[in-house]
Amino acid sequence: MSTTTLLGALLPVVPLVAGLVGLLLPPAARGATTDRDTSRRAAIALGVAGAAGALVLAVALLVTLDAPAESSTTWIRFGELTVTLGVRLDGAAALVAVAVAAVALAVQVYSVGYLTRGPHDDTDVDHRYPPYAAQISLFTAAMLLVVVSGDLIMLLVGWEVMGICSYLLIAHDRWLPQAPAAAQKAFLVTRVGDVGFLLGIALLGVSAGSFRIADVLAHDHGTGTLTAAGLLLLAGVAGKSAQFPLHTWLPDAMAGPTPISALIHAATMVAAGVYAITRLWPLFEATPTVLAVLGVMASVTLLLGAFAATAQDDIKRVLAWSTVSQLGYMTGALAVGSPPAALFHLLTHAAFKALLFLAAGVVIHAVGTAAMSRMGGLRHSMPVTFWCMLIGLGALAGLPPLSGFWSKEGVLAAAEGAALHGDGPAPAWVGWLVWLAGLVGVAVTAWYATRLLLRTFFGAPRTPLTHPHDPPALLRWPVLALTVPAALLGLAGFPGWFASQLQRTTPSDAEGVSDLMPPDGLIHLTPTVLLPLALLLLGAGLAWAGWRRDTAADPAAALGPLRPVFAGAFRLDDVQHTLVVRPTTALARAARVADERVVDGAVTGTGRGAGALGGGLAALHRSALPRAVVAVLAGALLIALAATLIGAM
Amino acid sequence: MTGVDVLLLALGAVAVGSGVFVVSTRHLVRAGLYLVVCLGAVAGMYLVLTAELVAWVQVLIYVGAVVVLLLFAVMLTRAPIGASDDLDRPGWPAALIGGGVGLGLAALLIDAFRWTTVELPEAGTAERIGEQVFASWVLPFEVLSILLLSALVGAIVLSRPDIGRTPGDSAARDRTPGDRPAGDEPAERAGSGGEGGAR
Amino acid sequence: MRPVIPYVTAALLFGLGVYGVLRRRNAVLVLMGVELMLNAVNLILITADTTTRALLPHSGQVFALFVIVLAAAEIGVGLAIVLQLYRMRASVAVDEVPLDTAPLDEVPMDKVPMEGQR
Q1: Labelling A606: which of A281, A300, B11, C100 has CA 20 to 30 A away?
Q2: What secondary structure letter does DSSP report for A596?
Q3: Please, which pLDDT band fits residue C107 given cuts at 50, 70 and 90?
Q4: Contact C94 A624 (CB under 8 A)
Q5: What would the DSSP string read from start to end of A519-573?
Q6: E strands within A152-193?
Q7: Distance of alpha carbon A34 from alpha carbon A632, whole angstroms
Q8: Which of A633, A637, A641 is the best mutation test for C, with the most CBs of C within 10 A?
């Protein structure tokens, strides 16, 4: 095992240890104040140390990695199937690992300041910090395991542990009534996808005879197997990466603390699906059917998220729907056949979405509410936050030269290439679909980003009772730290070391399918870049114009009758409830009734039947003389008849 | 058809006919008397079949003792002298089973013997039957006498008036002898005496 | 002598006895049915004595004698039981004896009205 693979193997281990040790800490006692609480301090130390250690290891890995490396050992053998323990490292894995560790560290530091007793809390609120920090560490370990894993089963382990940590963390605030339901919904919806994921992995592993990713990629599966496995894996991706129709959990997951939303539901876990596809890209590249399905899902998700974000009042929900929409961009890039573009957008999105969530958390912390209708005019009272959020929203909308512009441009250019020139493994109509949806999405994204900015920071303050101010250092520094990559990461897409890291993930085979990227670098600067720019200006301008008319009113009022439709995300939650939840609960009820009446009833019925039979026999036994005599003589007659007949035969 | 056959036929008809009346009449006492006729006819058949000793024993014991006992029982259980309506249970199981048994047996026996003839053996006189009983069958004979003894003892024990009485009831009886009408005790004693005397 | 005649007579008597046992409610009449059955058996035994040459001569008649003795013993004990039943219940109907209730106390003779003397 070389240095790089050792670093890769240690990457998940460090936060795992921090997490496990942290779970052993006692949760803070009720009523303990935050500065005298040793358990909390130990938890903070462990969490920050775990994330910092992971970041150091990830940076070291990135620096020392000069070629894709792999190392594995056989772990279990099931007859002819092998499950291995190992790492598979390349540039993309290293970069994603750095992103994950960085965001995790930012979130750990931020949480220290966020989960303290603030001016709006009761005196004896208990944030239960030790399990919180430990679960974040565990989550980080699981995500890093997904990133570096060289074996599909290990990837699945990390995948599932992420799911459970997400569930635990969403439900962290026990006093919030909607948190448990949101956690359950997140878990169950992603679980539905995870079943498909598991089946897809099983199919691939059985077909290849081994679960090692290198073996699976090298094996020649049949087209049927590949298509089936690809579609099943897409189910898992749809669940984890909140694609239509398994997207319904993400907005409700905002019931969790804001740092968790930043870490899990913006930067890392939701990106895991996209990452998994890039890991197994040669398989997907060979199945245009699966890519077509992915393209449709991506386009629908993109537009659905964008439109739903336009009408939300909760600031976190706007950002959640925005995440859904941006994930649609990433999966759209994959659908047209460009993993580098998807990964580039993944990395920039991790930066600016984490920034946006943490900044939103600062706003919520200062104002005491997440409803934009009760914010306003915060630009003067919270200038640092305002500028950070402005950069984040600009990146989101795709304003040059911020990072989002370059990566979104990459996606749109890849889609354009697939549509107009038929490049890439997917059919051309998929390219058209993704490209047009992406363009419309640019306009809508700009619209809602501008709306968010205006509603929150401009206009007359609608919260006269609180005195919002810029956040304390613990909250401010992570936000500032994330602003840097949110602004500048896109420039790394120019030809250079960064771009080469991402590009090495594609097959180096010259006659292979094009990855729709320029020969070096990730940036397209063709004349068609003007189209999204124009749409951005259009969207932002419309929002600003609508706001100008009445600075206290919601620009979303311009949506008119469509507003409730968008706010309810096209009632898809209700559709899911009717099509899935109600039949399932009815089935569960029926199963329970069947268990009680039929199964238990059979058992009790056997008892009762035996008792009745016994009672009947007892009654027969107790029969008075006449009945007994009849029985005896009738029996004698029957025996005599039988004897005669048998004797006669 | 010889004379023996005619006699057997006639006596058999009488026996079956009176048997029908025994089981179907509504007069209790008449049932007992029809039983006498039936048993007498059967005794006659025994005579025709050269079973002399058995025939006379039948008359002695069955007609003389058993039927008398039955009539005593009829009297002691306050049987009505005239017709009574509540003597019978539902008829169909009885008819089914009785008919099945009787006709089945008859069919079996007809099938076995058809219209064959046999020679009547030497008569079963007292001397000859006595030889057999006290030579080959002496052991069952002795056992039978023990059985008779136990039946006798059992009958006496069973007919004691103090059987089945609970302690409270006997205490009540002992405490209030004057309340009981004088007619009961003689009847009871007569009943037990009558039963004991019939043996 | 045609043995089928006494045989058929006996069979019919037996059937009548069974009918009587199953049909009658009065215990004494049930015992009369039993007597009919026993007589039928006796008749068959006597007739068998003529149709079969047994190893021991006249064994059919000897058996018939024994059956008569048994019948006498049986009727004695049986009637004792019937009379005891009458003392306890003032009724000898065989279908009025429930087997799952506690036995009643003896009914004093004076409480029972004599039938026919109403």
Answers
A1: C100
A2: I
A3: low
A4: yes
A5: SSSS----GGGHHHHHHHHHHHHHHHHHHHH-TTS-GGGGGTTHHHHHHTGGGHH
A6: none
A7: 91
A8: A633
* C-alpha distance from residue A420 to each of A83, A408, A433 (Å): 43, 18, 12
Cα torsion A12, A18, A24, A27 to 10°: value is -120
3-state secondary structure of A73: strand
- ipTM of predicted assembly, 2 dp: 0.82
Distance CA A14, CA A51 (A): 8
CB < 8 Å from C in window 597-636 of A:
622-626, 629-630, 633
C-alpha separations of A211 from A208, A214, A230, B163 in Å? 7, 9, 15, 91
- Of the candidates B195, B197, B182, B199, the one whose C-alpha atom is nearest the C-alpha of residue B76 is B195
State both tokens at B1: 């058809």
**In chain A, domain spans:** 287-564, 575-648
Q: pLDDT tens digits, residue range A126-138?
A: 678 889 999 999 9
Burial of B56 (0-12, 13-18, 19+ CB in 10 A): middle
Q: What is the least distance, in Å, from the CA of B30 to any CA of chain A?
A: 23
Give kind and range of the element (H or E) at residue A13.
helix A3-24
List subunits contacting chain B, requiring 3 or more Cβ pairs under 8 Å.
Answer: A, C
Measuring CA to CA, how many Å separate A2 from each of A56, A63, A71?
A: 18, 14, 8
Q: Which residue of A has its CA nearest to C98?
A: A624
| CB within 8 Å of A472: residues ≥ 6 apart | A113
Flag whether pLDDT at B198 surpasses 70. no
| A526 phi/psi in degrees, rounded to 5 | -95, 165
Say if CB A321 and CB A569 are below 8 A apart. yes
| Residue contact B104–A637, C-beta within 8 A | yes
Q: Closest Cα to residue A396, out of A352, A332, A330?
A: A352
Q: In this structure, is the dihedral angle defined by the CA atoms of residues B157, B159, B164 and B165, taken in order, positive or negative?
A: negative
Q: Residue for token digits 């500048």?
A: A488
Instruction: Specify which residues A212 forms β-bridges with.
Output: A151
Q: Where are the domains of chain B?
A: 137-199
DSSP string, C27-95: HHHHHHHHHHHHHHHHHHHHHHHHHS--SSTTHHHHHHHHHHHHHHHHHHHHHHHHHHHHHHHS--BGG
**Which chains does chain C touch, 3 or more C-beta pairs < 8 A?**
A, B
Q: What SS3 class is residue A507?
A: coil
User: C1 and B2 in contact by Cβ < 8 A?
Assistant: yes
Report the range out of A65-74, A331-340, B162-171 with the highest average pLDDT: A331-340
A622 to C100: CB separation less than 8 angstroms, yes or no: yes
Q: Which residues face A82 on adjacent strands?
A: A77, A210
Instruction: Specify the pLDDT at position A101.
Output: 94
Token pair in block for residue B71: 């009539």
Residue type at C109? M
pLDDT tens digit string along A593-631? 988 888 888 888 888 999 899 888 888 777 777 888 888
CB of B103 closer than 8 Å to CB of B45: no
Residue with tokens 């919270």: A382
- CA–CA gap between residue C30 and residue C18 (Å, rounded): 9
Residue in the structure block whose two tokens are 């890995």: A61
Provide the mean pLDDT of chain A: 87
DSSP for residue A256: S
DSSP annotation string for A24-66: HSPPPPTT--TTS-HHHHHHHHHHHHHHHHHHHHHHHHHHH--
Q: According to the model, what pLDDT value does residue B184 have?
A: 45
Contact C18, C37 (CB under 8 A): yes
